[in-house]
Amino acid sequence: MIDVIETALTWRRLSPRMLVIHPFQEVVRAAPALLGLLVAGSSSGGQGHLWSVAGVALMVVLGMLRWFTTTYRITPEHVQVRRGLLTRKVVTVPRDRVRTVDVTSHVLHRVLGLARVEVGTGTSERRHEGRLKLDALTAAEAARLRVELLHRSPVAPATASPTVSPVAPPAGSTPAAETELARMRPEWVRFGPFTMSGLVTVGVVAGFVSRLVSEGNVDLGRVGPVQETWRWFSAMSLPLEIATVVLVLVVFVSVASTLGYVLAFGNFRLTRHAEGTLHVTRGLLTTRAITIEERRLRGVEVSEPLLLRAVRGARLSAVTTGLRAAQGSQRGGSLLLPPAPRAAAVSVARLVLPTVAGAPSASSVSEASPVTADLTPHGPAALRRRFTRAYGVHALVLTALLALWWWAGLPSWTWLTAAALLPLTALLAADRYRSLGHALTSGYLVTRWGSLARRRVALECDGVIGWNIERSFFQRRARLATLTATTAAGKQGYQVRDVDLTEALRLAAAGTPGLLDPFLVEAQHVS
Fold this sequence. Notes:
Blueprint: H1 2-9, E1 12-13, H2 18-29, H3 31-43, H4 48-68, E2 71-74, E3 78-83, E4 89-94, E5 100-105, H5 107-112, E6 114-120, E7 131-138, H6 139-150, E8 178-183, H7 198-216, H8 224-234, H9 238-265, E9 269-273, E10 277-282, E11 287-293, E12 297-305, H10 306-310, E13 313-320, E14 335-341, H11 342-352, H12 379-407, H13 412-420, H14 422-435, E15 437-441, E16 444-449, E17 453-460, E18 464-470, H15 473-477, E19 480-487, E20 493-500, H16 501-511, H17 517-526
Antiparallel strand pairs: 1-2, 2-3, 3-4, 5-6, 5-11, 6-7, 8-9, 9-10, 10-11, 12-13, 12-17, 13-14, 15-16, 16-17, 18-19, 19-20
Helix pairs in contact: 2-4, 3-4, 3-7, 7-9, 12-13, 12-14
């Protein structure tokens, strides 16, 4: 037993197979600069290929040094990583502060039987200061670490004997204490083009080409295919040019979005484990496994972007402590269901929402489910505010375009187009008002808002740590307010926008009984 504890306290290295991973990553990261050296050297008649080979060799050496200078250890109190050659740095994460353990395997990782483990504490997530990375461990060790850190099991180092160290279950196996809640279905791929994630691909490709051209001092105007394409494009009329650009962009973004959807969410599974956790696995080429402790779950968010809503689709995210809601539900660990039919998102939400003590079960009483309950509209004042703000912004834009047309010679079609879009502004304002709503049911505060991205959040009232009531000058004139429920989970605060002031006070008092009583009594005395 003493030998096991001493082994746990010693510093250990990552898997030696990462000597293949890290040099490859460094070369890929420096690829634009290396290609630029090669192109610049070749075009000037120099020895560009020699500089490129030297650059590749340098990247390989730097990648190998990461293995020699990186060690880690797991103690009963901490998880520590030590790295650096000239400047040594030790990153320490207390084990009682561990909130998430993400296990990711890229293509090369999977070929070599490796995985990257990222430990999150739920603090400073936007700057990644509260996260610790181990790249790379063996797949079995990564799975063991995930279970050990989240379930607070005793330390069992990988170097200990097999009789002491637990063995991770084989890949693809289904434990007996596992309940499947959702699985990726082939027909869900039709929602891929409506996610518009391909716009990110357009930006990445454009940035890569721009950097390659800049580093290599390449003149694209002298490239034959580019010249021919530009000559063909320039021969078109302006309306045809615009239509061609839009068509090409739509086709490219749709194809890229569908491909990205398949790669990101292929083999998606959501399961519940007997230890009190929700386990999400997804990814076709790059696999990712995220574990969410149900005791930290404070609610769910059903998101319906405009295009996805047009085809009756939605995505589901968890509102829980320790996950990166600021980075988006697709990239962060809060995703519970990828873009799928809205009925599927609602069904999964009802399965994962915890039942509040003293409230009826959402699974047994459909009317009590926070994701299906009817919402209270926000009244005529909120409706007028939506139209006033929409037409106000539109009027400012139209006035600016008219001024530029009159004094700077701006084409007249600009302000004519802006004027023709007035009905669209009215539709947007009306849709934003229809999206507004709130409810207090089954121990949850439910709020909905947004038009371009409609969101419905069901937040457990027990997870609310405070209430903020904000009123702008125009809201005070309309007797409206914005009520914010502050919480330690998700985005740290969820708003009920443009609600009547009396209703806002009622929601806060009913959501957290007794919290506002001293203030309300004082306000009555003052009045």
